[in-house]
Amino acid sequence: MQKMKGVIIPMITPFDENDNIDFKATDALIDYLIAGGVNGLYPCGTTGEMMKMTIEEKKRFTEHTIKYVNGRIPVFVQVGAANTKDTVELAKHAWKAGAAGIGVITPQFLRVTDEEMISYYKTVASSVPDDCSVYLYNIPQCSANDISVPVADFLASTMKNIVGIKYSYPDFNVFKEYVLCHDKEFDVICGPDQLFLPALSIGCKGVVAGCGNCDPVPFVKVYKAFESGDMEGAKTAQEQANDLAKIIKGCAILSYVKYGAHYNGIPLSHMRAPAMDIGEAEVKKMYAELDAYYFKYGKEL
Asked: Are strands 6-9 and 101-105 parallel, antiparallel or unpaired?
């Protein structure tokens, strides 16, 4: 069983001017991220505009990504969808396509009870083999549902392949409680890029860094410095990562992330409606800020 660790990038989904997936841009992005030293990829997630992709598009993007990566790094696919049936279909597909594991977002929009949450995750986890690592994905500020610590602990204790959680809300107390789940045999992956180092310091295993689509290097530097015991180096790298996150709006407006990747040589990918590409004036302002950022820190990729 493969598990998430270190720097995992939730890939943007490149769309061309005709609103089709741009697979050439996808390949360029994958090569760029691997060259930057990331530990894994996470397609079809929030940063990948999953809510605006069809089931068939998700399957094609998953298949293409895994095939092009060709075993260079593990690919963990986000498979959560609008209903359990579609989620199970995507989970089975991802595993068959060669995914290292899957992430599964909570049900969205309409609130569910703890009983319904548990049933949902047990059904999805049971649909794939025990050696397929399953990560709960909790982003309550977007999904309107939250995975309580007792529910996470119960699921980890009940299902062999539920091995961790990606938590994307900046509540550090909850991070600390998740780490203690299942007798500390539950891997917690940090969602907020700016909390990567603090999360590592309390036992989290890595980060799913959306800002890393623009430049993964500062996040990789955080992880390498932390793993080697260089806390001062890790702090410096986290400050660098935070400066980058500030320029691209912390991934809150995804067009900034896509233009940030374009600044670093990735073919421009567009937003899918109803989201819009940022305007020319905003692009110019952001590129000037990136110029200053790289003048300060240097360009390493």
From this structure: unpaired
224 is an active site residue: no
**36-56: per-residue pLDDT in tens?**
999 999 999 999 999 999 999
Of the candidates 166, 205, 221, 258, the residue annotated as catalytic is 166
How much is the CA Rg of the chain, to the nearest whole Å? 18
DSSP 234-267: HHHHHHHHHHHHHHTGGGSSHHHHHHHHHHTTPP
Backbone angles phi, psi at 144, to 5 degrees: 75, 5
Phi, psi of 207 (to 5 degrees): -135, 145
Q: 120, 135, 137, 259: which is the annotated catalytic residue?
A: 137
Question: Quick check: is 166 catalytic?
Answer: yes
**Residue carrying the six token digits 């939250």:** 146
Q: If we measure between CA atoms, which residue out of 213, 178, 184, 208 comes closest to residue 195? A: 208
DSSP 194: G
Q: What is the pTM of this model?
A: 0.96
pLDDT for 158-215, tens place per residue? 999 999 999 999 999 999 999 999 999 999 999 999 999 999 999 999 999 999 999 9
- For residue 166, is it left (φ>0), alpha (ψ between -120 and 50) or beta? beta
259-278 mean pLDDT = 96
pLDDT at 290 (0 to 100): 98
Query: What pLDDT shows up at residue 301?
Result: 84
